[in-house]
Write a structure and sequence with these properties.
The chain has helices at 11-22, 64-74, 84-112, 120-141, 154-169, 180-190, 193-196; strands at residues 2-6, 27-31, 52-54, 60-61. 34% of the residues are buried. The chain contains seven helices and four strands, in the order βαβββαααααα. It folds into two domains: 2-74, 3-Layer(aba) Sandwich (Glutaredoxin); 84-192, Glutathione S-transferase Yfyf (Class Pi), Chain A, domain 2. It is globular, with a radius of gyration of 17 Å. A hairpin with a 5-residue loop joins strand 3 and strand 4 (60-61). Strands 2-1-3-4 form a four-stranded mixed β-sheet. It is α+β, with helices and mostly antiparallel strands.
Length: 201
């Protein structure tokens, strides 16, 4: 059985867990933090980053974009379109969601440092990326049900996990207040069992 290594609070791990749930793929979840002194994450990813997916063959794959593509392929395809342009747009939207999460995490970690050691300019730069990503996502979604039109894609999953992480870790952003379309979109996704079952405590 596949083994997913990661933290329940990571938006990248959640993206993979949502796909696993949507596709009803059996797996074992090994909850690990890359920040713990005795972490086992490097056994599966030498870069000590989550998620990593250990396969039955003994190989492991990483990062979340690679894992997502693999899971979509072995389950018959659905979240990553086959047609070239549609595929590129879905992967672009996935990159947008991952980028929002990466910038948000960078700012979040910088804020956890001692106040005297924090770099306000660095934090502001990362938060500008988060805000620009949210604005782009809102404009791209428009009045559609999903980013690609009428079907959820890997881009929707990545962006939703990023925004829900931001809401969890940075509630002061209040991104739903000024984005009615995004709020309705996220509510649709949150109503799915795959998102409900992967919500961090």
């Amino acid at each position: 059985m596949m083994k997913l290594v990661g933290s329940k609070t990571s938006p990248f791990v959640r993206k993979v867990r949502v796909i696993l749930a949507e596709r009803n793929l059996p797996f074992e979840f090994l909850e690990e933090s890359a920040w713990n002194k005795d972490t086992t994450v490097p056994r599966y990813n030498p870069l000590n980053k989550v998620p990593a997916l250990a396969l039955d063959s003994g190989e492991s794959i990483y990062d979340s974009a690679v894992i997502s593509e693999y899971l979509d392929a072995i389950s018959g395809g659905h979240f990553i379109p086959a047609e070239a342009q549609a595929r590129a747009l879905a992967r672009r939207d996935e990159a947008l969601g991952d980028g929002i999460a990466e910038a948000g995490i960078a700012a979040f970690l910088e804020r956890k440092r001692d106040a005297a050691r924090q770099d306000p300019a660095w934090i502001a730069r990362q938060m500008d990326k988060v805000q620009a990503g949210i604005a782009t996502l809102s404009g791209r979604l428009g009045s559609r049900d999903y980013l690609g039109g009428d079907r959820m894609s890997v881009g929707d999953i990545a962006c939703a996990c990023a925004l829900l992480w931001a809401e969890f870790r940075m509630p002061e952003l209040r991104w739903r207040d000024d984005n009615a379309g995004l709020a309705a979109w996220i509510a649709r996704l949150e109503s799915r069992p795959s998102f409900g079952s992967t919500r961090p405590a």
